[in-house]
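User: structure tokens for this one?
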Amino acid sequence: MTSTIKIDPLPSLGFGLRLRTEYLETILRDQPELDCIEIITENYLAADEAGLRQLDALCARYPVVLHGLSLAIGSPWPLDQGYLDDLKRLIDRIEPIWISDHLCWNGADDEQGQLLPLPYSEETLEHVATRIEQVQTFLGRRILLENVPVEQDNPQDIPEAEFIRQVAERSDSLILIDIGNLLSGNLGPGFSVPDYIDRLPQERVQQVHLPDISFQPTPGDDCTDTPHIIDPIWRLYTEILNRFGRVTTIIEREDTIPTLQELLCDIRKIRQAVDRHLDAG
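Assistant:
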């Protein structure tokens, strides 16, 4: 493992979407206004040459980030060298702006995408930080790691946000905050959003996944209106904006698949709302 880790500060890319196959041909043809696009890594590790050429064309037009499901950084089993080899080949071909995966434990028999939370202990912290360093040395760049849903009875010798902070600092990695995962697992007694956010190091939070936000209807509702948002997801997102500023935000839609135009409209509304919030602050 002889690669040198790239340590230059990473840019803030603005607002983007996660690519779905339903959107690809339209995006390549119409080239809509987007700051960036997130690609699921596993969708292209075994892609044929035609699929990779489509990805090349996308990367020629937009900043692209890779988001993986299969790194299993917390697993007790050895790192999957075959997966890392395939990942490095894809990285070398398309040169994504950055790559990310999940801060989780995946067992040898887990189905792809089953994201099992880690026990937040000193032993786990040392194990995970060592494995991240190995991955980053092999890939020659830092990686982002995303929080996963955590049940209230998950073993926690170290508070979750503190664990994430220490992982990032010990391994010199970066952080992806998934707001949906945070809300789905942590809204129990004693949980404080400001305290959680304040524990995360400002210089290492690189990206946010933003789930579906409910917009208060406005006259016309044609993407040109400045939206009024009354939504717990938005309240948490503004806490993140207040601490970290204009962090790269990828809009996720997990439960429904909107049309590309609907998603582009949501991105415009969110950009307007962020501008209004930050300007007012």
